[in-house]
Structures are given as structure tokens and as C-alpha cells.
Amino acid sequence: MGCRLCEVYCLVQHSRTKNIIKAYKGEYPKPQPRLIVEEKGHISFALQCRHCEDAPCLEACITGAMYRDKNTAAILCEENKCVGCWMCIMVCPFGVIGRNREGKKVISKCDLCIGAETPVCVKNCPNEAIIHEERK
Amino acid sequence: MAKRSPPTEFIIERDDEKCIACQVCVRMCSNDVHSYDTETDAVFSDSAKCVGCHFCETICPTGAITIGRNPSEFKLNANWNAQVIKNIIKQAETGGVLLTGMGCDRPYPIYWDHIVLNASQVTNPSIDPLREPMELCTYIGRKPDKIEIQITNSKSQIPNYRLQTLIPPQLKLETPILFSAMSYGSISLNACRSLARAAAEIGTFYNTGEGGLHKELYRYSPNTIVQVASGRFGVHKEYLEAGAAIEIKIGQGAKPGIGGHLPGEKVSEEISSTRMIPQGTDALSPAPHHDIYSIEDLKQLIYALKEATRYKKPVGVKIAAVHNVAPIVSGIVRAGADFVAIDGIRGGTGAAPTVVRDSVGIPIELAIAVVDQRLREEGIRNQASIIAAGGLRNSADVIKAIALGADAVYIGTAALVAMGCSLCQSCYTGKCNWGIATQDPYLTKRLNPDIATQRLVNLLHAWSLEIKEMLGGMGINAIESLRGNREQLRGVGLSDIDLKLLGIKPAGEAW
Amino acid sequence: MNYFLGKDISGCGLVGVMDQSGRRFSGRDIITSIACMRERANGLGGGFAAYGIYPEFRIYWCFHMMFESKSAMVQTEEFLRDNYKLVKDEIIPTKEDKYVRYRPLLWRYFLQPKEEKMKLHYDLTEEDFVVKTVMEINTQIEGAFVASSGKNMGVFKGVGYPEDIGRFYRLEEYEAYIWTAHGRFPTNTVGWWGGAHPFGLLDWSVVHNGEVSSYGINRRFLLNYGYSCAFFTDTEVMTYLFDLLVRKHKLSFEIVADILAAPFWDGMERESPEKREILKALRITYGSALVNGPFSIIVANSESMIGLNDRIKLRPLMAATFENKLYIASEESAIREICPTPDKVWMPKAGEPVIGRLKKQNG
Lengths: 136, 511, 363
Known about the structure:
By secondary structure, chain B is α/β, with parallel strands linked by helices.
């Protein structure tokens, strides 16, 4: 419904303290949400990495930093291998990869909230607009 | 002074330690109360615009917002209280009729809170609903005076019975609670969808109200009661066919004597096509049906509808509870109605003049009691089912209504609260933040029918379970044995005449 | 007569014996049987109904009256003479019994409705007329109560243990083909003569063990059909329900059992489609006649005796047969006390009626 609470919770999940008040007011540099809400008129939806089956970013990565996690099948980026060439950003058809704005020369993208049971955007959307499900 | 606006009702209290300036409240408030200032990187609020819907308070991720009452007080005056003064100021400003939404909020006595229920102790065992069958199944419709059964081959060991009497069409309810009439227009399509789906899932019915039936909802017709109101909005052949029953709306508890009112702001394109009226115009239903000026005209309409639907569906009448409700209902039953819905003074609405909502009508408790007694005295109680409506808040109210004599109850406000409403009474503005009483697509999105349906189902499920518990406590295992059984009720703190009208004894008195 | 107008709630014990061939037998047996269940009563009420006891007067209506005072008797007789031809009236013979205290005046009248009165009430059958006059006496004449108003039958009841009441009324001297008996255990402090069971109207008599939780609505349902319940007893409501459903609506006893102890909706699903349709129609129409709450009743009229339990059998009832005789009682011991070797003994299920019928005789 265009509230952008998904962005808020994504930011908190990827912060250092994972505490909403400290993340917004205390942490420097300010943590970065990995999704964005697209809006036009009354139509709005949250857009994050689709974790595509045939992911172009996986192909484009020159160092092999992009890999698919064996357990969750999510596309993740190994930060110490990423050189910040931005090829994945350019090749992503959805435009969901961004540059890290927290001071490191690496990319920033949805990681399906590693370590959490359900991705926090799904869990916290007040209108249950985001669904995470297996598709065969 | 030329311009004087009444003091605001609510004050927004924002806890600065908790506010993270995420701007969710800014984005969500349809009344533009909150705004973000980029210079100070802070959110500030204009309390004057707040209607008290609590949407921002609910959605704030840190719980930083509290909606408080404006402490600014007028000098204490029992006669000229703050509300009265503000109303006069508003009317002096605008010269208009004061509109409001939802039901009467005046402190008239609530008889439900003065009625207590019985339980079995020693002389009669109570029944445990979790271990034994407890029946809430209810049938709405005209019942025959008696049953004739033909017994063929009675000489043989097992005689063959054949039913001779034809039972008129009935509605079968799994629980004695239905969703009250709320028109598509006063509430959003998502809200209508939720009511329809919940009714289908539980096995009860919802009412289209006077807004016609949206094409998408035709598939829920086995659970739909279609309403024919004075404006005849959306009434055509398929509409009548689509209902499982037809209800002629003569009046409603929130505004007896006047017609429905849908402000032009809420008449969108979809509403316009469903109601068959031009877009953007106020939809004002006329006060009476202009073809029903007397009881014989009503009889004509009832039978016209029955003919049109080949006598296959129950046709009933909805009226507001007014002073002469007992003889009126008696007349309606004799005019051929299969059920009569009576809406008390606490009934809700999307828009009504405040004075009418608050001063016209009588409480439903008294209405059901006198109507039920009167119909029994005349020997016609079985000819129509009675549905009680008007501010029933919980399962205790429902069970008391049934014990006083109703066959079933309609819930309106309670259903909306289940879907998110917080009774801010601003429905007529069309800016309902919860996506219920609005047609604005930005806002209607917020009511997810999947979630709202589940909440309504949960509500009815919970109430049904509570009713079963109370029935079991009274030693009764079928709702028919409670219907009209006033021996199971006692009054506390009621006057003699109240007790007499309600037909119940005072607490402390035995059989 | 201690006239406590509070609703009677019964604990109690019941017995009914019927000889289906119509052969009459003495009241001795029934007194023995009910005495066996003494613990079920508390001395605050006992009573009997007997059918076939006045063969010489079998065509006349017999009213068993209780009068609290002589003036009540005078007033009632005036009323009766106005409406009926008084064929015979006499005191009901009783024996001294130290346990039966405070006795009202007990009188019986053999009556026939006056022709001109029947012409005046041309829309009423003779039975309706009798019902009307009985209700008038009960509600309008202070201190008078009609205990029974049938032909060739009578109700004998009072405050005391049933075996004492039976001996008081010298029931061993009467012969009837149906006897029913009842011992009361009311939870109100005072019993009164009119409130003991059986409750009688026309040739109906009902003895009842139970408490009807649906009393409030059953009573109002009857109001819809013109019966006004003046006595706040469950038994009155039962009697009127039988009168309405059997006499006026002409339904069979099996059907009436399906109304008063209606089967559950779930249970109906397991029946055949025709039966299910009938059960559903009955429940929809007569839902307010469903008697909820525990009960065992024995109902009798001139041709039958019926025993019935509530829909979840919360009170005991046993039945037995021996040759032509049918026995129904709260306890098997009460049956075996007077019939040591019955042919068949069984426990009726919830809502399953036990029906004894008089075999049709010639003449």
C-alpha cells in the first residue's frame, strides 16, 4: 500500500545492531535497505532481487563473487571477492542491485535475510502484500 | 470574528526518542496530518486535521505515536458540553446539516448491560460444548402453523411417512449471526468481497445494502441477501435472481424516516455502473419508497417480488425500531413478509445527519421484546423470522437478543471493527484510512480481502464458540430452546416498567 | 392448600403399568411399585392416574376437584351447573392416614356439557369446551383446582409420599387398565396439592421427572396456539404440548417424540432422504416445542401410555413387557417388584418412545 515498511525492516535487518531506533538514529554510516518500492499513481509494489533461475548477474560477474547459496538457492555476493566493477548492476533486468553506500566498494542486494526464518519484508508487510514461495 | 473553527478533538503525541522519521505516517495519512521537513529531518503533525482513526498509531514501527484527547477544556457545563458547543460553531461556519458516520454514541441506557444470564446448578446438568453436540443451526423464513403427515401402510411393522405440508423457502444459517446491510458505495469493494467470502466460509449470509450488487460478487449469490431500498439502486432482474433472499428496506436504525445518503465524493465509476446513477452525483435515496405509502402498498411490493422470483426465495422487510414497532411488525407479517429485520437506535451508517442518528429511534432490546410478545399474542409468531440489529457488540448481546425473541442477529459495526475500523465516525468523508469506507484506490488497496475475510471468520467462529459455552451452561443443547426463552434472563438495575416491557424478571427472583 | 406459585422443579420417580388387552386390575400393584422408589421422593408430593375406573359413567366427563374452602366449592358448583348437566357428584372416598396432613376438600363431578352452551360455542369441539371451562376454573376461581377432566379416568394426588397418598385415596379398591404414579422431590420448600403430579387435562395425564430448560419458550410457543400456562410447572407444558400436537394437529406419538426430543441435525444426515425431509420440516416448524433439559415422562390417555426421554437421556427410564402388560418406570427394581419375571426388559434410547396401545375391542 505504499507505506514502505518493507524498506524500514530491510534496513534494520541489515544494520549492525538490528535495533530499529539505534539503526536509524545511532548507526553511522546509515544502513541500506536492499529493496525499493516502485510507485505510479495508486499502484505500488516492493521490488527486490528475484533470485532468478538463470541469473544474468551470475554470468556477468568477472571475479566469481556472485554465487548461488546451496541451501536457500538465493543469489549472494561474497564481499571480499567483489571488486566493484558494477557489471551485475548493468546487466540485471530488474535493476535491483545497487552500490553499497556504507563506504565499501561492493554491491548491495537482497540476500533473502540469511539467518532469519522468513525474510523480514514478508514477515512485516502489514497488508501481506509480499509473498515468498517455492515455484517449480 | 468571522472565521472560527472549533477546537480540535485530538492531539497527536509523538515520542521523539522513538520517532525514526521513517515517514510511514506521512505517506499513509489520508487527512494529511503528518509531514516531513527535510531541513530538520523530522516529522511533525497538524493535530487539527486528525479524525482519530488510529491508522498511523497502529502502523508506526516503533510505536512513537499516541492519539490523545485535546486537553483544552471549556468551562465545565453539564448542559452545554464541548460537543454541543463545537456543533454550533460548525453550523455557524457552514450553514449545513451536520453529518456523521457509524451509530448513535449518546449515553442512552444499554439494556444489554443490565441483563444477566442463567446457568444450571444441581437441578439440571450443564452441557459441555467441547464434548457434546451443541446446535446453533438456524432457519430463517416463514414457518407453517402445523405439519401434516400421511401414514401409508400403517399396518406393517415400519409405517411409511409422507410429508404433506409444503415448507416455505428458508435460509439455512450455521450460526445465528448474519452480516448487516452495508452498501457497496458506503464501503469499498474489498470490504464487500471480504464480507461475502466470510459469509460463504462460515455458512451464513451478508447483505448487499442499497448499493446494488457488483458483478464480481454474483458468484457468492448462495450467501447473499439482496436489498431493495427506496432508491432502487441497482435493482434489475439478475439482481433479484442473484439473492438467496430479498429484503425490502423501509428504514434503518441510524436514520429512521429518512433515506440513505452516499456523498458524491464516494460515487466512482464502478459505483456509478453498479448503482445505475451518474458518476459524482450524491446518491440520495428518497425518504419513503414512493410506491409504498401504506401497508397495503407494502403487501403489493412483497408479492410482486415473490411473483418475480417465483416464490422460491424468502422476501422480508427491514425497518427501524420506532415507537409503534409492535403493531407495525404485526402488520408487516400479515402483509406477507417471511422475515422482519428490526434495526435499533444504535445501528450504524456511512452518513447520516447527527441529530437524526442520535435522537430518532428506540433501543433494539425493547423493540425485540415487545414485537416477539405481540406476535405471539396474535398467534402469528411463526409466520416470520425476526432478525435483530443495531449495535450488538459481543456474543453476550447476541445470546440475549435471541433469548428475548430474535431468530438471528445482524452485525454491522462489529464486522467493520473486525476488519480494522476504529469508529472515528468520518465515513462520510470518503477518506477512510483503513480502506473500508472509501472508494479511493490508494486507500481501498489497504484492505486485503484475504486478511479481512480471515478476521471476519475468526470473529464469527469465536462468537459461536462463546454462544455454545453459554448455552451449555444453561443446560440447553439447541438454539431453538433459547429463542424467546425469557426465563433464562434476569434484569439488574432496571425499573419495573423496563422489566415488564422486556418481559423478564428481576435478578434474585426464582421461577 | 398451600398455594406456592413458584415453578416446580422435580427430582422424582415414575411408574406406569398398562394392560394392553384392556383388562382392569387393582391399584395395589402400582402402590407397591412406587413405594420401592421412596428415596426418589421427599414427601412433598405423590399422585396417581387411573384409566377405566368409572365404567358405569364412562360417557360423562369426570372432574376431580380440590377445594381450599367451602366458598370455592360453592362458586365452582355454580359455574359447573351453568355450563354442564350435573349427572352425579360425590366426595372422593378417602381413608385416614397420619402422614397425609392438611387435606383440601376432594370432590368428584360427572358432567355433560349443556346443549345450549355447545350451540353458543359452535366453533369449539366438546373437548375444546371442556378445556376452556377447566382453564376458567383454574385461573378465575380462587381456591379451586381441577386435578383431572377426562372420561372414565381420574387423577388422585396430594402432598405426601406416593404410597401414603395411594392408601389415603383407597386406590387398592379401584380397578383400571392403565395406572401411572409419581413421587416428587421438588426443590422449592413447600409443595401444594395441585402441584403434585400427574398433571391432568381432558384424558391426558403426565408424570414427569426432570427440569425443562426450554420452559420459557415452550410456554410462549403454546401461547401462540391459545394455551395459557397458569401453573408454572413443566408438567403443565408437557400436557398441553401433547394435547396440541396429538389432538389438534393429529400427529402420531412417534412423530411427537421426534418433535419433543428432536434428533440432532448431524443424526438426521444418516437417515433416508424422505425421513430426513420430514425430520427437518418438523424441527423447522416445531423448534420451539423442542423440550430441552433432562426429562423422563410417562404420558397416558384413554387408549395409550407413552414413555419418553429427552434427546440426550439425562434421566433414567426402563421398560418391560409381560404378556399383555407394559411396564415403564424410572428404575428396573420398581418393575421387578411387581413383575419378577418379565418377558423382555430394555432401556429406551434417548428420544425413543415406548408406546403401549389398547388393542381394539369389539363393541
